[in-house]
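Session log. Operator J.P. requested a structure for one protein chain; no other inputs attached. Running the standard single-chain path with token output.
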Amino acid sequence: MLALFPFFSKKHNDEDAAIIRFVEKSFGYRPKNLELFHRALTHKSIAHNNDELSNERLEFLGDAILDAVIAELLLRLYPNEDEGYLTKIKSQLVSRRTLSLIGEEMEIGQVLRYNRGRSIKMATIEGNAVEALVGAMYLDAGYIQVKKSLNDHILRKY
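Structure written below.
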């Protein structure tokens, strides 16, 4: 019976539980492969110190997925606008500044892992981590789930 409920069959530490709560609250999604989400929330400043992988590759993937979701949404919202207009709107929606503000608003800094002893611009790593979480969710559940989470929990709220 426990195999049907993998969350209950595995003991999670406090960090795992915090990440699960954060992703559920922010994206309305319960992670299956928690390692992906740990990686998404690990900045390179600490990844090298602990010999772990940073979130940079997931950030790269998340950026592409975010672009696709936003482009699809804009095509539906603005059926009569040209490519130039759509590109302008998309670039505003997925800009570093916008993603940083979203990361700050969702309080992503509380679950981010980074070297607190270094001078790091939090706004930058928060925005990057939002993209990395999108990449992690894509690998964990696919495009349809990412699109649903972004539409229901990010675009509507922010």
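Operator note: Residues 83 and 109 are 35 Å apart (CA to CA).
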